[in-house]
Amino acid sequence: MQDNAVTKYFYQGFPNDSITLLFGESQLYQLELTYNLANPTVSSTDTEIALPPETAYQHVTLDTLTPAPKNMVLDKDGNWLAIYPLKSQENKVVKAKLYLTVYPHPFQKLPIVPSKALLSQIKYWEANSAIVSSLAEKLKTPLNFYNYLTENFSYAYDRVGVGAERLGAERALANPEDAICTEFTDTFIALARSAGVSAREVNGYAHTTNSSLKPLGLETDVLHSWPEYYDENQETWVAIDPTWGKTTGGIDYFNKMDFSHLAFVIHGQESSYPYPAGAYKKDLNEKTIAVTLADTKVEDHQSYSLEDDKDGSYIVNTGNVALIDYKVGLDSGKTITIKYLPPYGREQIQKDSILAKAPSLPIIPIVVSVLAVSLILFYVVSRRKK
After folding, report:
1. 20 close to 356: Cβ distance less than 8 angstroms
2. Burial degree of 360 (CB within 10 A; 0-12, 13-18, 19+)
3. Could you give the C-alpha distances from 71 to 48, 307, 325, 346, in angstroms and in order?
4. Does the residue 312 lie in any domain?
5. Residues 281-336: pLDDT tens digits?
6. Is residue 64 part of a domain?
7. Confidence (pTM)
8. Which of 112, 136, 181, 369 is found 20 to 30 A from 202 (Cα to Cα)?
């Protein structure tokens, strides 16, 4: 009800129930990210960094990326990987400014569907172990997995800090009182995969003003981890947060999310790579992530250019948003569809094709444990584009 221009909300329920209110349809964030790259070897190499990707829950507008990468590729999990060449002994600082518009429900379907690999057992997700498979056979559904975790796992606040070991699902089930966000997430993924449900992990930034109710369990610039499972009926990835479902005293993080979860990387084919923003530090005390609430952002624009080399012709995304199911008319009268191309991305097309001018299409703005720094930098540098 409203009283003198003040809106009052009345809740009827049980005294120990928890509620959450979401106002508006989305939340806009401005991000400024710093990536410190180094090549300690005697050879030149290519390295890659992960930028926050487009997901079912977030829309990405890339404002600036300095210096520009030589390419931006989409990996099998939907991550945006910017490729940078590094000379021998070269250090390079990359700065990114972008806007994320975050929704509490899936607002778009992306042309990235799960593969059989997202049902596999890999490190931390021991889907085939006896303790995991027997529990998965008993519980059967994602909702039951979520409820089991919120009812039986306890959040170990004393484990949050430098050097906290990631236990993995098998050890987490054996030590349910010793969980942080990685254990809630890893165990859900292992249970889901064991039951034949594709599942993966999201690492990112979670906006919280109360770290007791909504704790952050990863060390790299106070990041957070939560799982997603693929809903075959809705044909979309569904994000949940059993950690916050537990620590908030029962707020429902299964049927809806909130405006606070910003995805930085997706782990599905691999459980630890790529690294999220925040892991590319010169020293552990360096702040490399700045996230602020925003009221306005740069306008989205879709554009491309054509580049030719000895291998053929390429369409290059020169806009600031991903080209998704983007149709391009050819002078031959044919139309090609760019399934998915992130900003700075290059996709080879038919060598003798001559592109017609692209139509101006409107777009609706829609909104780790820290390793020793030297090891992170060495591994990031040595990781080559697949």
Report:
1. no
2. exposed
3. 10, 13, 20, 6
4. yes
5. 998 888 999 999 999 999 999 999 888 888 788 899 999 999 999 998 766 778 88
6. no
7. 0.84
8. 136
Q: Are residues 255 and 184 in the same domain?
A: yes
Q: Do 329 and 359 touch, CB atoms closer than 8 A?
A: yes
Average pLDDT over residues 57-61: 98
Tell me how far the alpha carbon of residue 95 is from its chain's centroid: 18
CA distances from 359 to 299, 335, 352, 355, 362 (A): 17, 12, 21, 11, 9
As for how many domains the chain has, the answer is 2
Find the radius of gyration of the CA atoms of the chain.
22
Residue 226 and residue 330 share a domain: no
334 domain residue, yes or no: yes
Q: Tokens for 381?
A: 């540098």
Q: Which of 81-85, 107-111, 188-192 has the lowest mean pLDDT?
A: 107-111
Q: To the nearest whole number, what is the mean pLDDT of the chain?
A: 85
Q: Are residues 312 and 252 in the same domain?
A: no
- 251 occurs within a structural domain: yes
Beta strand 335-341 with 199-206 is unpaired
Q: Are 23 and 104 in contact (CB under 8 A)?
A: no
The tokens describing 268, both together, are 């599905």
Pairing mode, strands 223-231 and 80-86: unpaired
Query: Which domain covers residue 164, as residue numbers?
Result: 116-268
Query: How many Cβ atoms sit within 10 Å of the Cβ of residue 329?
Result: 14
Where do we find the tokens 């990405």?
Answer: 60
Which 3-state string (H, E, C) describes the chain? CEECCEECCCCCCCCCCCCCCCCCCCEEEEEEEEEEEECCCCCCEEEEEEECCCCCCEEEEEEEEECCCCEEEECCCCCEEEEEEECCCCEEEEEEEEEEEECCCCCCCCCCCCCHHHHCCECCECCCCHHHHHHHHHHCCHHHHHHHHHHHCCECHHHCCCCCCCCCHHHHHHCHHHECHHHHHHHHHHHHHHCCCCEEEEEEEECCCCCCCCCCCECCCCEEEEEEEEECCCCEEEECCHHHHHHCCCCCCCCCCCCCEEEEEEECCCCCCCCCCCCCCCCCCCCCEEEEECCCCCCCCCCEEEEEECCEEEEEECCCCCEEEEEEEECCCCEEEEEEECCCCEEEECCCCCECCCCCCCCCCCCCCCCCHHHHHHHHHHCCCC
